[in-house]
Amino acid sequence: MAKAKLTFADIGVTVTVPAGTRIIEVSEKVGAGIVYGCRESDCGTCLTEVVSGMENLSEASIFERTTLAEKKAGPNMRLACQTLVLGDATIKPGY
Ligand code: FES
After folding, report:
1. What is the mean predicted confidence (pLDDT) over 54-79?
2. Which residues partner with 49 through β-bridges?
3. How many domains does the chain divide into?
4. pTM, rounded to two decimals
5. Is the CB of 61 under 6 A from ligand 1?
6. CATH number, domain with residue 8
7. Which atom of ligand 1 is nearest to the CA of 42?
């Protein structure tokens, strides 16, 4: 199975995960500063800034894009509860 390195810039931790892992599954385990509310792409609490590797993340669903637009999120922002890691990326909390 393909692997991906996900780096949490806020705490300086890099973990190797199977490609297809959702960010939320890792961020809580490592103690990163991303916080969660609904976990269903509704609230936008898990807004996450992608420092690098946006091309290595899953495509945003219409539901995620709607919430990102409501939050006036920039093009480098994603929702950690929805985004799958497909290759190497570096992220940090979006708030
Ligand atoms: S936790 Fe609510 S949008 Fe991700």
Report:
1. 97
2. 77, 92
3. 1
4. 0.96
5. no
6. 3.10.20.30
7. 3
